[in-house]
Amino acid sequence: MKAIIAPWQNFLSKKFDLAYKKAFFSKFNKKFCYISKKCGEKIGRFNKKFYGLLKGGYMDFRDALLERFLNYTEFDTQSKITGKSSPTTLGQLKLAKQLEQELYTLELEEIKLSKHSVLTAFLPANMPNAPTIGLIAHLDTSPECSGKNVCAEVIENYRGGDIALGIGDEFISPVFYPFLHKHVGNTLIVADGNTLLGADNKAGIAEIMTALSVLKKTNIPHCNIRVAFTPDEEIGVGMKYFPIDQFLCDWAYTIDGGEVGELEYENFNGASAKVTIHGRNMHTGYATGKMINALTLACEFQQIFPTAETPEKTENKEGFFHLSRFIGDVEKVELHYLIRDFDAQKFEQRKRFIETAVANFNRNKKLRKKVELEIQNNYKNMYQTVQKTPQSIALADLAMRECGIEPLHKPIRGGTDGAWLAEKGLACPNIFTGGYNFHSKHEVITLEGMESAVNVIVKIAELAVAK
Ligand SMILES: [Zn+2]
What we know:
Blueprint: H1 7-12, H2 14-28, E1 35-38, E2 41-44, H3 48-55, H4 61-73, H5 90-105, E3 109-113, E4 119-123, E5 132-138, E6 153-156, E7 163-164, E8 171-172, E9 188-190, H6 199-217, E10 224-230, E11 251-257, E12 262-267, E13 269-278, H7 294-302, E14 320-328, E15 332-341, H8 344-365, E16 372-379, H9 383-387, H10 391-402, E17 408-412, H11 417-423, E18 430-432, E19 435-436, E20 444-446, H12 447-463
Parallel strand pairs: 5-10, 5-11, 11-18, 12-17
Antiparallel strand pairs: 1-2, 2-6, 3-4, 4-10, 6-9, 7-8, 9-20, 12-18, 13-15, 13-16, 14-15, 19-20
Bound molecules: zinc ion.
Zinc ion (ZN) binds near residues 201 and 256.
């Protein structure tokens, strides 16, 4: 028997709600905002022109900062692990070209955009004998989560509780993400549940651009600043064509961290390993004694790894092995691993562990075609280099405190472009952007956090020339 649903029940049902919103949204087709009441929050989806109109243009840097960020999120700059070119995706070059124009508008000097999408520029100091500080952010977003057709949603005056992302089933909740409790009353920016947001690292780009704009428009005394926006950071190859000889700085910062206050200058030593297992396919009816199933062999090989040493089961300075990709069929399987450790000696031991595992597997299995192993070093811990330039940490600490922020020194459980620069001798700690849940559909950033990042960058430039 079919249940009879009263019209008001139907109205309240999720199905009706979704259909209504879909129709409403498609009608206005991103040209205007829609505002819906959901869980007591006001959710607004803004197109950049509309936001400017709504807020009366660029009256202060808060609006300009938000507009910049929303604009950058519209570029699909997802990098591609298998990409052969540099940058690995065209979207990164498109964003770099737009940023190049913005740098010209800001009247920076020595603006250069290489064919590999490395964009650099220079803002001369307005004080004598000033040091030169580098500011770096990356153009790409993670290949682990779609960054195409990002629809950013701006939630003003967050009142606490769950936040529905777009019109799908995704939501973020303080039950799973307790950090949300800290942001009641703030302006949150999220994606619509279909893609990542791209705050990693477009928030960093927007913050650097806005800080440059503030420095240009005010008479704040400041140091020399070199800026670099780089491609393919997420896949660890972005610095291949970085013009290190021209990026002459006393030290630099990547603006690529998480929550407000984060200051990071220790990172993993990182390597990747590819294990290739060869099998022999055969009709299952004739397989007896002949088939070699590379998939089963791969499952067996994976059992060699310590189950407690994975990203999801380790924290702080604990290292891990991470099986990041498992691709193949009966004939051939590739296992891709990330190897991470803060300690250089333990890092080397982890690489030896895989080498020994492969050697033992080959010896025990006596396969007609041996299991192959390729190990590639990705980055080193920047700690030693940063220690040689302690003023890079002292200045960031001081700038944060002067902005009313308590610095939060943390190890980076990953790598940054700063790690590559550190290997070349340039200290490059990492400063917060204000974002959370990077590389995920649940990525979120606060506008207040982004404002704090701009304030800290400006303050660093100012304090660098203070007597
Ligand atoms: Zn990043």
